[in-house]
Amino acid sequence: MQAGLSSANTPEAIVGRCAAAARAAQHHLAQLSDPQKAAALHRAAASLRDSAGAILAANAKDSAESERGGLSPAMLDRLRLDDARLDGIALAVEAVADLPDPVGEILEKSERPNGLELSRVRVPIGVLGIIYESRPNVTADAAALCIRAGNAVILRGGSEAVRSNAAIHHAFVTGLVAGGVPAAAVQLVPTQDRAAVGAMLAAAGQIDMIIPRGGKGLVARVQQDARVPVLAHLDGICHTYIHSAADPAMAGEVAFNAKMRRPGICGAMESLLIDTQFGGAHGVLERLIEGGCAVRGDARVMAIDSRIAPAQSSDWDTEYLEPIVSVRLVDGLDEALAHIADHSSGHTDAIITDDADVAEKFLNRVDSAIVMVNASSQFADGGEFGLGAEIGIATGRLHARGPVALEGLTTYKWCVRGTGQVRP
User: Fold this and answer.
1) Segment 238-249 mean pLDDT
2) pLDDT at position 5, please?
3) What residues have CB less than 8 Å from 239, skipping those under 6 apart?
4) Which end of the chain is less congested by CB atoms within 10 angstroms, N or C?
5) Are 237 and 345 in contact (CB under 8 A)?
6) What is the maximum span of the chain, computed from C-alpha positions, in angstroms?
């Protein structure tokens, strides 16, 4: 037990109480109809808008304190809210509310020769724990997706957004309760004690799945220490490959957007591969440099523009989350594919080409959660995929992959209907 804490106030006890309340709330949530859940989420979105002043004031305090504390520009961008971003959060909640309810969907149905009728039916996972950093929008996004999929959720945000998360959580739950959903269905861990994370990771039997959203350090710790199943993504080391048959104007536009629209998101391009037979390399690199991006390249890339700095071996495996990009010239599709296989984190990789056969080869041979043709990697987002908000981009190969939205927050059960059959 930590010094100065009674047994009732240890992180383990706090998480245990949250989990017990969440389990009871999830059982209640399972009894609500699809229209009731949707209506409650619309009330939550309205409450977020009604509470805009309090949320933005709380966020301003978090942002000012984090800036004084030296938080990186990319992380500050993730943290900061304004009227437009807050309205976007409310719109995302409404979009989730309007999605079809996945719970109860019959995934397959069959009849055995002995007359048993089998069906595989989508059901909620139960109680989820979500551990995240910087982004206060996760508080609402995660809550909306969990409620829509019939799950209760325990949220543990980072200390840099503690006021913002609390304000968003209060507004969201106020709307939910007005819509008939128990307050305990969405809980924010009431302590910033770092030991609370460890308590969540050890809560096997109380929490059914942990989802981390944050940097490499957080995800690595969760994967190493968890005694609860984990749904996680690794770094967003995303590539764009400009093929020899790429349209130069498209290549410049897509590459610039992939890197510079929002450099601090996980779908931002971190490495750019340019085919040696592509004729517009100088124009693509010049646009990036003049747009404020620092370019690091191999010797052949450095020869294109004197403003390009040398790339180190570590650059090919770095998620910058800043306006920095590593660039390499490659001799054809196979070399590009080999580089991606060696250095991609399996998040999102893209090709720009007008050659349909090459595009199909790229789609088939790149083993990432999201593979794109002639599009910015910044589209790697649940909302852009028509899924509403998202919990994150899963880069593993089990359960869910790519943007994790409603279906990724469900599992299934088998329902068997008989007429008195016994097994011989």
Assistant:
1) 98
2) 58
3) 269, 270, 271, 272, 273, 339, 340, 343, 344, 349, 350
4) C
5) yes
6) 81
Rounded to an integer, the average pLDDT of 17-43 is: 96
CA atoms within 13 A on the CB side of 250: 17
Percent of the chain exceeding pLDDT 90 equals 82
Mean pLDDT calculated for residue range 17-46: 96
> Hey, what domains does the chain have and what are their CATH numbers?
7-232+396-416 (3.40.605.10), 238-379 (3.40.309.10)
Q: Over the chain, what is the mean pLDDT?
A: 93
Tokens standing for 222? 């969760």
What is the amino acid identity at position 230?
Answer: V
Range of weakest confidence among 122-126, 223-227, 281-285: 223-227
- Enter the tokens of residue 141: 């996004």
Which pair of tokens denotes residue 122?
Answer: 């989508």
Q: Is pLDDT at 232 greater than 90 in this prediction?
A: no
pLDDT of residue 344: 95
DSSP output for 367-382: -SSEEEESS-GGG-ST
Mean pLDDT, rounded, for 59-69: 95
Q: Which of 129, 147, 120, 45 is nearest to 86 (CA)?
A: 45
Provide CB contacts within 8 A for 268, sequence distance 6+: 236, 238, 258, 259, 261, 262, 321, 377, 378
Tokens of 332: 């054809």
Task: Give the span between the Cα atoms of 281 and 315, in whole angstroms.
Answer: 20
Strands (E), 97-145: 106-111, 117-124, 127-132
Most confidently modeled of 30-34, 193-197, 244-248? 244-248
Contacts 24+ apart (CB under 8 A), 225-228: 225/198, 225/201, 226/201, 227/201, 227/202, 227/203, 228/129, 228/200, 228/201, 228/202, 228/203, 228/204
